[in-house]
Amino acid sequence: MLKRLKLIRHEGKELNEESSFYNVLYNILIDRWTKSCTPLHCLAHSLNPRYYCLEWLQGAPNGVPPHKDEEICIERNKCMRRYFSDSKERLMATKEFVRFSGAEDVFGQFECLQNRWELEPKEWWIMYGSSSPLLQNLALKLLSQPSSSSCCERNWSTYSFIHSMKRNKINPKRVEDLVFVHTNLCLLSRQSSKYNEGETRMWDIGGDRAEPFDGAGTLEVSSLSLDEPELEAVIFIDGQGNNEISTVQV
């Protein structure tokens, strides 16, 4: 409320007047929150033992444990139904979550409760999650994911290679379509048996790189995929003042 008041004063408006500046900022925040509030995020939030601790609940304004938050519960259950397609397996996982969130059995031991805050979530599940194998396996997959911008950087490098103002003037929609196709070709190629064999195995691990060379882009060997299954590219190597040209076919 105070931030809203400051923004309105910045515009020289009364409190009951509509503020376009505030509405824009508010919509940006809501969009960002909505993007980060997926069923998978809610499931990961529910499996983080720290969010059940008094230290976190008392330190956060209006802190509520995940199993008592209606929105998180709804989204978590969606993810559980999708992940555990077998009804019997899903029932077992649900019972394991009940024991975990309700601090029952081994999860109710003093040391286990105390270390919810002291240990990293992954370490805590390794130490105390053996009695709930389905939930432990799921928690380790979710809570072991590092925070990284590499996916965004890879998309932008692909975009930069496809679209260069010195090379072409294709419209943004066309570029988006090409990036979409390129990314999906990368994913499809991983299903091929040749992906793990030969000199070109795991070719897309290195990502894409666009480098200027007399106005043209240079595509890494590890990134040749735009015209799969047969793509020929010329790679320029600067060696002792001479340009050596080699052709690589994937």
Description:
The structure is a single chain. This protein has 250 residues and is mainly alpha-helical. It has two domains: 37-143, no CATH class; 150-249, no CATH class. The protein contains eleven helices and four strands. The protein has helices at residues 2-11, 20-35, 39-46, 54-59, 70-83, 87-101, 110-118, 121-128, 133-143, 150-162, 172-189; strands at 212-213, 216-217, 232-239, 242-249. The protein has a two-stranded antiparallel ribbon with strand order 1-2. A two-stranded antiparallel sheet has the order 3-4. Strand 1 (212-213) and strand 2 form a beta hairpin. Helix 8 packs antiparallel against helix 9 (133-143). The longest helix has 18 residues, at 172-189. The protein is extended, with a radius of gyration of 26 Å.
Order of helices and strands: HHHHHHHHHHHEEEE
State the helicity in percent bands: 40-55%
The gross shape turns out to be extended
Which residues form runs of ≥5 with pLDDT under 50?
Answer: 207-250
Q: Biggest sheet, strands in spatial order?
A: 1-2
Structural class: mainly alpha
What's the number of structural domains? 2
Please, what is the average pLDDT? 74
- Biggest sheet overview: 2 strands, antiparallel
Multimerization state = single chain
Protein name: Dimer_Tnp_hAT domain-containing protein
Organism: Senna tora
GO molecular function: protein dimerization activity
Pfam families: Dimer_Tnp_hAT (PF05699)
Structure summarized in a few sentences:
With 250 residues, the protein is mainly α. The protein has helices at residues 2-11, 20-35, 39-46, 54-59, 70-83, 87-101, 110-118, 121-128, 133-143, 150-162, 172-189, and strands spanning 212-213, 216-217, 232-239, 242-249.
